[in-house]
Specification:
With about 300 residues, the chain is α/β, with parallel strands linked by helices. The protein folds into two domains: about 180 residues, 3-Layer(aba) Sandwich (Rossmann fold), CATH 3.40.50.720; about 90 residues, N-(1-d-carboxylethyl)-l-norvaline Dehydrogenase, domain 2 (Orthogonal Bundle), CATH 1.10.1040.50. It contains twelve helices and eight strands.
Length: about 300
């Protein structure tokens, strides 16, 4: 099965990750449909897509003509049913909560055509457990895009216990048609990306809590000393502190290792609603437009 054989891609969830996926999918030339809980949220996501594509044009990543052609291939659906009935590949990009994802995948299974591939953008939750909520586990796969989707090159392709070779090969071809590089991994908590990344972020938070150094010092050490493009605290703000906490819970519970136990400071900040860029305040205060170490 080639990417060209998929006529329509559906994206469920128009938030931070969800509105980043359609522009890449549309540049691979199929029609893309975006949906969320309400049509208003889907249209808000479409507005974010337009703004991000304008920035891509300004930075020379695409031409104005390419932007308009890609944007014309992206639409919003009034309901998930409208989207699902038409889609050959559905990418879920909702909140990083297992109950929400399994509930959605059970609904996707009922609504989608039998041949449709169901992909989850989960960053840590078991693809096998998500697939078990469906009657087509062989057609369920992890398709973990990195944030921010328009810039980051990688898609982590996660094979559940029953995912077939054909499903994995199809998603790899699709990812490459979107201009992404792929790495295939097996279904373990956190996969590769977050199993390695989250302990570093968690340790950086603990170092800040213990007064080892300031937030700027911690981020600068990792940027200038380890050649990371962004410091771990700034990166946590970009990812969302609530998402970081959810991933650490999955790692801690799934692997049973105390090194994955979330930092008390991270828990406290999430409880306070200081979730990073999406709320305007995390380890840095974005409302005051502070100079934040990391990518501009």
């Amino acid at each position: 099965m080639t990417a060209a054989q998929h006529e329509t891609i559906g994206v469920v969830g128009a938030g931070t990750m969800g509105h980043g996926i359609p522009p890449r999918a549309a540049r691979a030339r199929p029609p893309v449909l975006l949906t969320d809980i309400t049509e208003e949220l889907a249209r808000k996501g479409l507005g974010e897509i337009d703004r991000e594509m304008r920035r891509s044009v300004e930075k020379g990543r695409m031409t104005a003509e390419e932007k308009e052609a890609a944007l014309a291939r992206i639409g919003t659906a009034a309901s998930a049913s409208d989207l699902l009935a038409a889609s050959d590949l559905v990418v879920e990009a909702i909140i990083e909560k297992e109950e929400a994802k399994t509930s959605l995948f059970a609904a996707l299974d009922r609504a989608c055509k039998p041949s449709a591939i169901l992909a989850t953008n989960t960053s840590s939750i078991s693809v096998t457990r998500i697939a078990a909520a469906t009657r087509r586990p062989e057609q369920v796969v992890g398709m973990h895009f990195m944030n921010p989707v328009p810039i980051m090159a990688l898609v982590e392709v996660i094979r559940g216990r029953k995912t077939t070779d054909a499903t994995v090969a199809s998603v790899i071809r699709w990812s490459r048609a979107m201009g992404k590089e792929t790495v295939e991994v097996n279904d373990f908590p956190g996969f590769v990306s977050n199993r390695v990344l989250m302990p570093m972020i968690n340790e950086a938070i603990t170092a800040l809590m213990e007064g080892v150094a300031s937030r700027e010092a911690i981020d600068t050490v990792m940027m200038k000393g380890m050649n990371h493009p962004m410091g771990p605290l700034a990166l946590a703000d970009l990812i969302g502190l609530d998402t970081c906490l959810s991933i650490l819970h999955v790692l801690h519970e799934g692997l049973g290792d105390p090194r994955y136990r979330p930092s008390p400071l991270l828990r406290q900040m999430v409880d306070a609603g200081d979730l990073g860029r999406k709320t305007g305040r995390g380890f840095y205060d974005y409302g005051k437009k502070e100079a934040t170490p990391g990518r501009s």
